[in-house]
Specification:
- It is a single chain.
- By secondary structure, the chain is an alpha/beta fold.
- The chain has two domains: 132 residues, Aspartate/ornithine carbamoyltransferase (Rossmann fold); 143 residues, Aspartate/ornithine carbamoyltransferase (Rossmann fold), CATH 3.40.50.1370.
- It has 14 helices and nine strands.
- α9 links the parallel β6 and β7.
- α3 packs across α7, α4 crosses α14 and α5 packs across α6.
- The longest helix is centred in the first third of the chain and has 20 residues.
- It is globular, with a radius of gyration of 20 Å.
- The N terminus is likely disordered.
């Protein structure tokens, strides 16, 4: 496999990567076409609900918009006359900025609503809110504490609902991660991603999607911080179905061994501040350093969805040439744009299909 070739000689890999980036700029001409996929009218609560072809279509549209708008300097008012309600129970730099600027860049009107503006289930029920917003805007992005809030919104709304983060899943982050890795490595199939950290919503989203893209997952979590059992069971089923590797361990070095991508996230999420001292103790030894990377593939890179704390990854890795965290943050914009365009229009990408 290509990943084995890379592990034989990092110098050869660098040469191949340079040639590839010069010739294709992240796009592969002549790759097999995707079967026709339309996502118009769909919601996106979790990538568990999306097929491999549908996830690939989302990434293709995202890469296409980035190519045409950022590099081609095109103006594409694909969402002219449309509006999005952005409900935020939890604050976020990247989710707000990417959605608000992305929707506006596509010609639409974003409406930002905090818990001061719209207190779901308190001053108005989720059911009533969903029905009201369905008559006032075209799509809703909701960043909430409980995933059940999204499910109720989706059940009652007649417009698409996007999960901007819940306690269970964070699909829009994982789309950005995949686009970033696709741009860097040229393709996703055969890559090994190692998660070293908490069994949280980001990890759950990787587990519900990685096997569908031919990506292997190696997961290290401390005892007591494992992913949700039902998510593990579904991920095991997906791995068997798609022939990928899924390893769960408590040893960060075991997870990092022979990996292409090292990933972590905050150990103390919003709402968990009271547990901070205990969590920092339980996650001792989980900080990603160059020593962690020493057992990974020679081509290893680092991802973090941000905001980052020193205990999760040291400066040497975080600000190194192996870190993709800032391109990853930018790709939050292009992938949420790709998702919104896909759910609201019949847009067909104009650039060659990405190689998966």
């Amino acid at each position: 496999t290509m990943s084995k070739l890379f592990s034989v000689n990092s110098t050869v890999f660098k040469c191949l990567k340079t040639l590839h980036s010069r010739s294709t700029r992240g796009f592969s001409i002549g790759a097999a076409s995707l079967s026709p996929v339309s996502l118009k009218g769909r919601s996106c609560l979790t990538l568990k609900d999306f097929s491999p072809e549908e996830i690939k279509k989302l990434l293709w549209v995202s890469g296409d918009l980035k190519h045409r708008i950022k590099h081609g300097k095109e103006y594409l008012p694909l969402l002219q006359g449309k509006s999005i309600a952005m409900i935020f129970e939890k604050r976020s730099t990247r989710t707000r900025m990417s959605t608000e600027t992305g929707f506006a860049l596509l010609g639409g009107h974003p409406c930002f609503l905090t818990s001061q503006d719209i207190h779901l289930g308190v001053n108005e029920s989720c059911k009533d809110t969903a029905r009201v917003l369905s008559g006032l805007c075209d799509i809703v992005l909701a960043r909430v504490y409980s995933h059940s809030t999204l499910e109720e919104l989706d059940k009652e709304a007649s417009i698409p609902i996007i999960n901007g983060l819940s306690d269970l899943y964070h699909p829009i982050q994982i789309l950005a991660d995949y686009l970033t890795l696709q741009e860097h490595y040229g393709s996703l199939n055969g890559l090994t991603i190692s998660w070293i950290g908490d069994g949280n919503n980001i990890l759950h989203s990787f587990m519900m999607s990685a096997p569908k893209l031919g990506v292997h997952l190696k997961i290290a979590t401390p005892k007591g911080y494992e992913p949700v059992k039902s998510v593990i069971q579904e991920a095991q089923r997906l791995s068997r179905q798609h022939g990928t590797q899924l390893i769960l361990t408590t040893d960060p070095m075991e997870a990092a061994r022979d990996s292409n991508v090292l990933v972590t996230d905050t150990w103390v999420s919003m709402g968990q501040e009271e547990e901070k001292a205990k969590r920092l103790k339980d996650f001792h030894g989980y900080q990603i350093t160059m020593e962690t990377g020493s057992v990974a593939n020679p081509d290893w890179m680092f991802l973090h969805c941000l905001p980052r704390k020193m205990e999760e990854v040291d400066d040497e890795v975080f600000y190194s040439s192996r870190s993709l965290v800032f391109p990853e943050a930018e790709n939050r914009k292009w992938t949420i744009m790709g998702l919104m365009v896909s759910l609201l229009t019949d847009y067909t990408p104009k650039t060659p299909i990405l190689k998966f």
